[in-house]
Amino acid sequence: MSIYFKLFVLLSSLPFWLSYAVANDIILVTFPDSSIDSENPEELVSLALKYEHAEGVPRNNAKAMALYCKAARTGDAEAQYSLGWMYANGRGVSRNDNIASHLFSMAAKQGHLHAQKMGLYTTTSSSPSLPTCLSKKLRQQTESGEEVIYSNDSIFKLVTKLAPLYEVDPKLVMAIISVESGFNVRAVSPKNAQGLMQLIPETAKRFRVKNSFDAEDNIKGGIAYLQWLLAFFKGNVSLVAAAYNAGERAVERYRGIPPYPETKNYVKKIRKLYKKRIHPYRPSVVGR
Questions:
Q1: Structural domain that includes position 190
Q2: Do residue 145 and residue 107 come from a single domain?
Q3: What is the pLDDT of residue 18?
Q4: Measured between alpha carbons, how far is 211 from 221 in angstroms, rounded to an integer?
Q5: Which positions are annotated as active-site residues?
Q6: How confident is the model at residue 36 (pLDDT cuts 50, 70, 90)?
Q7: 89, 118, 147: which is the final residue of a domain?
Q8: Residue 265 pLDDT
Q9: For the residues of 221-248, what is the DSSP string, one character each?
Q10: In this structure, are 209 and 102 located in the same domain?
Q11: Is 95 left (phi over 0), alpha (psi -120 to 50) or beta?
């Protein structure tokens, strides 16, 4: 067999392997392309759009997704939205509303208007899920034996290091981060809640957070707030979740979970990820 024939066979099979990779949520770009080396998310998204829509280059969904993923890893809202769009519409990848919904939610928290609208049309019926190209998935067993999938192993390591210092269950912290920011360190909500645990400036100041976009600083402040809420609401996880979303004053005013649709849905999401109804607490924390 000549070397030319082998080369012909290799090149002929390349489109098949690329399509297989995309269909199975594996981002493979098997040929060199200097354009993907950029670290600028705007440049990456611009180039991804060209490959997705065949603007001046041949259409290549595998390249588009690889570029969107690289930009999305930096926390870029447009990249998160565009990647969500591809999953929502099955464009070059198997359709997955769960992944799409989670990506739209991440972008929406940063004020992306189209992502906020798309979030109304996609629903998630399982634990938070992201494409494999964005982060490593970490599997945890809940108290009932149900498997929960969290994303981002590096953040989990931070949480397991910090949470015991405040006597807060790391699994509760991971549930809050998952629902609040989708593990996006740079997340900013329309109400200016910032970082992994979505701390508003007043809460950040209250718990001595200097930089809400620093993962460790943000997590410390968020866990300290959870510790205080647990003491204030005597370990009632549902009330703590409601207060984390709507504020402790609102929970006091309604003497329970406020009737806000957003808060009720938020509590439901947290309870799905964290099964314990009561969490141990330190009463003396409230007196500080």
A1: 137-285
A2: no
A3: 42
A4: 10
A5: 180
A6: low
A7: 118
A8: 93
A9: HHHHHHHHHHHHTTTBHHHHHHHHHH-H
A10: no
A11: beta
For residue 244, give the nearest of 274, 214, 287 by alpha carbon.
Answer: 274
110 lies in the same domain as 185: no
Q: How many residues does the chain have?
A: 288
Rounded CA-CA distance 171/155 in Å is 12
The CATH number given to whatever domain includes residue 238 is: 1.10.530.10
Q: How many domains does the chain have?
A: 2
Segment 252-277 shows an average pLDDT of: 94
Quick one: 99 and 234 in the same domain? Answer: no
pLDDT reported for residue 127: 52
CA neighbours closer than 13 Å in the CB half-sphere of residue 13 = 7
What count of other Cβ atoms lies within 10 Å of the Cβ of residue 268? Answer: 13
pLDDT per position as a tens digit, 70-81: 888 777 889 999
226 assigned to some structural domain:
yes
Give the pLDDT of residue 13: 47
pLDDT tens-digit series, residues 245-262: 999 999 999 999 999 999
- If one counts every other C-beta atom within 10 angstroms of the C-beta of residue 5, the result is 9
Backbone angles phi, psi at 149, to 5 degrees: -105, 120
Q: What is the pLDDT of residue 219?
A: 97
- Indicate the residue among 90, 118, 146 that finishes a domain: 118
What tens digit of pLDDT does each residue of 56-72 get?
Answer: 899 998 889 889 988 88
